[in-house]
Design the sequence.
């Protein structure tokens, strides 16, 4: 703690110019969540002076500060880029303790970690950036940014601001047009509905009994309503989940804990998500049955109103109710279920603002709750292009049986999830103006992994603004597939790369050719193409260039891959990787055609060395490098 205080003091003096003038940064990132901190890591590694403004005391947003540290990725696409680096470092922590991360979702395929471990790893990865905790951007005027810190209002200037907040709060400050629910600014209808929020909890088993200060004697007001709600999800004699879907409710407490199980750094031994280990689980997340408002509904409607995003006083009220709903589960677990579990004293130690007026006997429990709620839906920028559910589906069908290649040339990330909305999924709440209805959820469910285009990071008008986290130019249904931790880290990394390329080249973000950002990402180990080749694996020296050659169609592979048609959450069938022909010698005609295509893509003449007797791999590598020089 003393080291942390000292570091904060050093940062404070570093950010305090003697003249009283505003401190200048290349990039100011509002929000140090999954997207914001990934953007900071990438931009700072490219030599930019970066400031992260984080409202809580933790980095990692939904994955740490909001307590959703069980990673969500249904496509099982191999991790890449910053996300892979992050998970590798987290794994190294647990390998050192001889513990498994494969703990959640009733199986051994999932990955989870303790929020404190995730924060520590991200803080180390982002050490080249300046970070202001407990701070928020409160005003934006061109290149001027005002930040409220614990020590008062501070002024900064920046070339680019990235909105990576959990709510998209910078858009209205910066004059960016945006979508909120299914309405478009400035004509926002605050009575429209968006997804439920959840105030999660990290709980652990206390074998010797729950300490008195973590076991309040009296329930909070509204407990009886919550009790009836939780009885539908988990009971003392509930069903034992045996891996068959749909889950038969209510489940027993052991099955509940195996759903969001988290590794425990503070106990002996290890466990996995395998059924034989469920009795050993000592730590889990509470993120099931405690959505707010959930079945309570809001004035008879599912979800929360758009007013939650637009009115901060209303937001505070909703978040307090969400916190209390989860605290009701703590009481239900201890008293109705008779379990010796409570919040984990090793996680969190900072009273959430929503808990300030709780009765004294509940404050010590609340102190170890996540500092922020899990917010599934935010404002979304209005870009020149809006990603929709049908576009995701069509892209995910690339290389499927009897389907054509539909890869996106400006892809900057690959995700894999269903169109998952927690409530607010009626036709009245879906964006019919974008051609979507409730039926689209099923009709356009991705068939597997899908790409994210760079276009959706950039607003239609404002030039020094880039979106990250859940704030991208996309429909509500598309956001249901792009809101999870793996893909928000990947799109965040791309936002940081876009900001850096824009500044280093001296052009506006919208003027940056996607290839320049993609080259940076490919060199950073990011997977960009949906095509997999048996002769060009990830460790191949030309892997990055082959990815870009595939995206831009510079040369036709000897054989495209073939993937089975499937549902994303029900993988089946056998995939056949393609063959790029990386070691095959190119003909002079083929080489000329590749160069012609490349020059057309870049709109200029390539500066190329003489190439004779070269392989496809050598040719695409030289050409991609030349394209990056334009």
Sequence:
């Amino acid at each position: 703690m003393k080291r942390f205080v000292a570091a904060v003091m050093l940062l404070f003096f570093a950010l305090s110019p003697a003249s009283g003038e505003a401190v200048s940064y290349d990039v100011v990132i509002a929000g140090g969540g999954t997207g914001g901190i990934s953007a900071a890591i990438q931009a700072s590694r490219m030599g930019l002076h970066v400031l992260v403004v984080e409202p809580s005391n933790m980095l990692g947003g939904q994955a740490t500060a909001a307590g959703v540290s069980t990673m969500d990725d249904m496509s099982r696409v191999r991790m890449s880029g910053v996300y892979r680096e992050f998970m590798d470092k987290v794994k190294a922590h647990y390998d050192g303790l001889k513990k498994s991360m494969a703990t959640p979702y009733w199986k051994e395929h999932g990955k989870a970690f303790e929020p404190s471990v995730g924060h520590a790893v991200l803080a180390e990865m982002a050490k080249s950036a300046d970070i202001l905790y407990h701070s928020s951007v409160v005003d934006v005027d061109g290149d001027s940014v005002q930040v409220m810190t614990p020590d008062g209002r501070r002024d900064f200037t920046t070339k680019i601001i990235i909105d990576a907040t959990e709510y998209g709060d910078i858009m209205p400050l910066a004059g960016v047009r945006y979508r909120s629910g299914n309405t478009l600014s400035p004509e926002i209808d605050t009575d429209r509905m968006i997804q439920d929020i959840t105030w999660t909890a990290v709980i652990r088993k206390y074998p010797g009994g729950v300490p008195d200060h973590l076991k309040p004697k009296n329930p909070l007001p509204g407990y009886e309503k919550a009790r009836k709600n939780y009885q539908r999800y988990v009971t003392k004699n509930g069903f034992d989940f045996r891996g068959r879907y749909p889950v038969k409710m209510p489940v027993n407490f052991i099955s509940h804990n195996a759903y969001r199980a988290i590794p425990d750094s503070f106990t002996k031994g290890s466990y996995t998500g395998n059924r034989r280990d469920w009795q050993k689980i000592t730590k889990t997340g509470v993120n099931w049955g405690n959505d707010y408002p959930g079945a309570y509904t809001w004035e008879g409607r599912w979800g929360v109103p758009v007013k939650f995003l637009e009115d901060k006083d209303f937001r505070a009220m909703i978040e307090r109710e969400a916190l209390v709903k989860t605290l009701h589960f703590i009481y239900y677990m201890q008293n109705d279920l008779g379990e010796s579990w409570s919040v984990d004293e090793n996680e969190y130690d900072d009273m959430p603002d929503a808990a300030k007026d709780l009765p004294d006997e509940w404050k010590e429990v609340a102190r170890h709750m996540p500092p922020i709620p899990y917010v599934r839906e935010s404002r979304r920028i209005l870009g020149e292009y809006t990603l929709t559910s049908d576009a995701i589906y069509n892209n995910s069908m690339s290389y499927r049986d009897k389907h054509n290649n539909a890869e996106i040339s400006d892809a900057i990330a690959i995700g894999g999830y269903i169109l998952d909305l927690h409530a607010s999924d009626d036709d009245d709440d879906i964006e019919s103006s974008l051609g979507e209805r409730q039926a689209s959820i099923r009709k356009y469910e991705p068939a597997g992994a899908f790409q994210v285009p760079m276009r959706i990071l950039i607003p239609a008008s404002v030039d020094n603004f880039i979106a990250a986290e859940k704030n991208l130019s996309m429909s509500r249904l598309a956001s249901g597939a792009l809101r999870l931790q793996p893909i928000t880290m990947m799109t965040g990394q791309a936002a940081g790369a876009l900001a850096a390329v824009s500044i280093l080249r001296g052009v506006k973000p919208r003027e940056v050719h996607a290839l320049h950002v993609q080259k940076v990402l490919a060199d950073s180990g990011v997977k960009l193409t949906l095509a997999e080749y048996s002769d060009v694996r990830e460790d191949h020296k030309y892997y990055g260039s082959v990815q870009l050659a595939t995206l831009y169609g510079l040369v036709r592979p000897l054989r495209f891959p073939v993937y089975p048609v499937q549902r994303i959450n029900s993988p089946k069938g056998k995939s056949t990787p393609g063959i790029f022909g990386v070691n095959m010698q190119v003909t002079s005609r083929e080489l000329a055609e590749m160069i012609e295509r490349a020059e057309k893509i870049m709109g200029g003449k390539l500066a190329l060395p003489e190439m004779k007797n070269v392989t496809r791999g050598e040719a695409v590598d030289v050409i991609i490098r030349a394209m990056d020089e334009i």
